[in-house]
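Hey, I was hoping to borrow your eyes for a little while. There's a protein on my desk that I can't quite get my head around. The fold is given in discrete form, as structure tokens running alongside the sequence. I'd be grateful if you could look everything over and explain what you see. Here's the protein in full, and shout if anything looks odd to you:
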Amino acid sequence: MGKAHSGKTSMRSIIFANYLARDTMRLSPTLDVEHHHVRFLGDLVLNLWDCGGQDAFYESYFERDRETIFRSVELLIYVFDIESDCPEKDFDHFSGVLEAIEENSPDARIFVLVHKMDLVAEEEREMILEDRRRLIEESCAGCGVQNFQCFGTSIWDETLYKAWSEIVTNLIPNIGVLESHLNDFCRICDADEVVLFERATFLVISHAQAKNVGGGGGDAIKPSDGVDGSSAAAIKDGSATGGAVVESAEAGIVSDVAAEDAGGAADGVMILDGQPSQSPPPAEISDDSDQLLQAGG
């Protein structure tokens, strides 16, 4: 969710439909709510609701369709446009969304993306993002929301992949099992570093590093801790290969993770260790898949 023209549909199209950033300019504004069922990690289906951000739609979301929109939400993604000309109204809408989420889906995880950061001068980005994060924290506290994560993003760099890698990791059942397998894989291969990607989107699912150079076990690392997403973005647009991700690995290995341990993830997961990789096929998007997860995006 987020105001109109904040970039919600653009980022979804880049991550899940293999759009290039420059191609998003031909996307039309979202009207009302668009439902998208995205197949992820083989057998996992993400039910994404892309909500139009015009004022008239928010009135509908908060009144007539309140329960329909905000009930059974697993994860909320709220997008702020850093160059919005009416930030006060943006925060009013944000507070209304938080209240509705607390009322109908109190266990939903909340992610806030401060988007279009490329439009901010590089030397001012950290300061402006921190200021916006403070305002978001105040809004969350005022609505009784204690836990949320905030990212600065842009469709033109790796920040979009870093944020979405963290988001989808929160939706994967048995993520601890995947991390354990990755640790074992890193140790057995005596690799310095192993990165686990989702095949269709190249989002980073997990990352392991050897405790000591040359072997000796690995530490599973969250996407936001170890890999910044730039390599995944480069792979996806064809400007780099898997070898750019694991720079010091000696052997090239591609392996699947056991499906029974990861909810059927084997067909959708690759572990890359130093070898070039072809660009992935587009993620499957349909409108008639079974609803497994609902995320406001």
User: Anything to note?
Assistant: Residues 212-224, 237-297 have pLDDT under 50 and may be disordered. The first helix runs from residue 8 to 17.
